[in-house]
Amino acid sequence: MTQMLHKVLRYLGHGVVVIITFAMLAPVVYMVAMSFRTTQEITQAPLALPETLYLGNYANALSQMNYLQSVLNSLGITLSVTVIVSLVGSMAAYPLARRTNTFTRIIVMLAALGLATPNFVTITPIYVIFRNLGLLDTYVGIIIAFSALNLPLAVFFYTSFISAIPKELEEAARLDNCGDWAVFWHVIRPLLGPATATLSLFVMLMVWNDFTYPLLLLTDPDKYTVMISVYRFVGNLNVKPEMLFPAAVLGSLPLLVLFIIFQRRIVAGVTAGAVK
Amino acid sequence: MGSSKRIYLFTLPAIFIIGCFFVYPILLSARLSFTDFSGVGLAEWVGWKNYDRFFSRTRYLYSVWITIKFTLVVVIAQTLIGLIFATILHRMPAIRNLCRAVLFTPAMMSFVIVGYVWQFIYSPYSGGLNALLGMIGLEEWQRGWLGEPSTALYALAAAHVWMFIGYTTAIFLVGYANIPRDIEEAGRLDGASSWQRFRHLELPLLAPSFTVNIILSTVGTLKTFELPFIMTRGGPDRATQTLSLEIVNQLFGSYKFGFASALSIIMLIIVITVAVVQNVWLRGRENNQ
Fold first, then answer.
1. Is B193 helix (H, G, I), strand (E, B) or coil?
2. Who among B18, B117, B222 is closest to A151 (CB)?
3. CB-CB: which of B6, B233, B268 is closest to A117?
4. Does a structural domain hold residue A165?
5. Number of H helices and number of E strands within chain A?
């Protein structure tokens, strides 16, 4: 009898935890529900669900936001940054993983400095440097800025990954008289796939969601990333719900869809990156 | 022999990028902080004037205090709530992965969007929170959450914690997964209750997860910019004016590049000091356990 009771209580406990957890999604559900309602409806009944699938808000947002262009911009920037950061980062990580001496320690310290520096510390000088170099409001500029921001993480990431690759794999190539570059390119680089996949996830999250750099470095609407086009569309004063909510849904949709498909890998990748 | 030295050439591109975009800007920032540079024209050397200005005006010291207060509230709340979720989910393997993914979802959204959505949730008349309070009969709790200096900062902190709670929970769950099974089994065989196991076995063994969580959330929160920028613009009555917001305002509101640089250097010193102190303290704590 007590065992029965125990079992029932256990099921109840699980149920309560699942309910509390899903309650945490309330703001997301709220965002989606409100995006289908007019301002007038929201004022009259702030918490009601949409009665019809009213798409007027979306039509309005899509026509004014330059949404597709900004999605393409974010994707293109993510891709370029991933290519640069994975190449430069893994190259630097190879000697760092294989040798330990004063020189490699200095590089690791530099990378740690980069990792700890808030971008507000470098934003003023980077703005000035970019202006002098004519890189303000260019794709090249924003790609360089994001690459620099992600590089320290990439260096740490690849260093711990390459350290775990057995040295024996390199030895056969060394016997064939391959130089360091050939060993790196033909032996090490092909093994880095999983690390690069996780890294590209970090890059994607940052490029998609970061606000400060593109806000200060980009002024041409055709070059906006998604978050900037959301911000420019919704504005900062007298925010209207019928603009805010569809823009918020459109702005987070791609990453949320990606998350639903790859949630296991994303959670594992992001936490592994943090723990290392 | 030549090959063993040439391998260091591989680090050159990384050194170049880190040099150009971290080391050089920090040095340039340090130099600009002693000038009255306004973005254009020549910069005049003004000595310690910018730093004098910072230390002699309460409004700037206040923004440091706001930043620290916000960080304390967020880090404590996030660590505690994350620990509670992880501890419960660790004991419920059947629903662990599902709940972890659900809790993690807000971390996929950006600060900008979280800021907008929560700004509307808090809005006094048609916002979701006041409507919810009205529905469950707590009308006396209704207020303009972001409009009152006493609640605005906590309202921002709640949105921030909501966004990253899944992150903290996931890291604690990794910590739980790393606890050797036989230790847990031994505790169970000794007849230790769930609470005793948590208090005397798991909590000490989770020390490394505390280290990672606290350092990550502290460094992330000290630079808070987007939430106050979107939700309150630093108001009401400067109650949410964080240091990063002050930097951006000085920079693009009043074109005081020199003073903004001084604020940046102060911020860098704060972040590095806090990170080093926490690292020493938390790692020491790990070893003592």
1. coil
2. B18
3. B268
4. yes
5. 14, 0
